[in-house]
Amino acid sequence: MSDVFHADCPARQVLDHITSRWGIWVLIALQEKELRFYELRERIEGVSEKMLSQTLRTLVRDGLIWRAVEPSTPPKVTYGLTPLGRGTGERLAGMFGWIRDHAFDILAVQADYDQASVG
């Protein structure tokens, strides 16, 4: 087993892809259902087409999502989670559920910290 704290650990590269700015959102969005490119772009506010395309390409290469192209004009491209991606997405959804449930608590602690730092 590799030590994830070492720079050459393969898990670090995969973790970088999963937890990239947009990778995590793609995996969570696809947890609910398969989506077309434009649906992902609309679902994930703030992502540019370029960054979404790049992120999708990386996650397909990693084997976390699949890509299906229907020949039409324009082509219909659909994305979904592979079994590896589903396992990752389930764990991310759990983490995000915890964050959602505790976000206001964390923000309150931040406000208290900031207030104490000013005084």
Structure described in brief:
The protein has a single domain (10-118), classed as Arc Repressor Mutant, subunit A.
Give a description of the structure.
This protein is mainly α and about 120 residues long. It has a single domain (about 10-119), classed as Winged helix-like DNA-binding domain superfamily/Winged helix DNA-binding domain (Arc Repressor Mutant, subunit A, Orthogonal Bundle), CATH 1.10.10. About 65% of the residues lie in helices and about 10% in strands. It is built from five helices and three strands. It has helices at about 10-20, 25-30, 35-45, 50-60, 85-119; strands at about 35, 65-70, 75-80. A three-stranded antiparallel sheet has the order 1-3-2. Strand 2 and strand 3 form a beta hairpin. Helix 2 crosses helix 5 (about 85-119). The N and C termini lie far apart (about 50 Å). The model has no long low-confidence stretch (mean pLDDT about 90).
> What is the CATH topology classification name?
Arc Repressor Mutant, subunit A
Number of strands: 3
Task: Average the pLDDT over all residues and give the rounded result.
Answer: 92
Order of the strands making up the biggest sheet:
1-3-2
Query: What is the CATH C level class, in words?
Result: Mainly Alpha
| Amino-to-carboxy terminus distance | 49 Å
Give the number of domains: 1
| Shape call | globular
The number of distinct helices, counting runs of at least 4 residues, comes to: 5
Structural class: mainly alpha
Helix residue percentage: 55-70%
Contiguous runs where pLDDT drops below 50 for at least 5 residues: none
Order of helices and strands: HHEHHEEH
Q: Tell me the strand percentage band.
A: 5-15%
Biggest sheet descriptor: 3 strands, antiparallel
How does CATH name the architecture?
Answer: Orthogonal Bundle
Q: Rg, please?
A: 18 Å
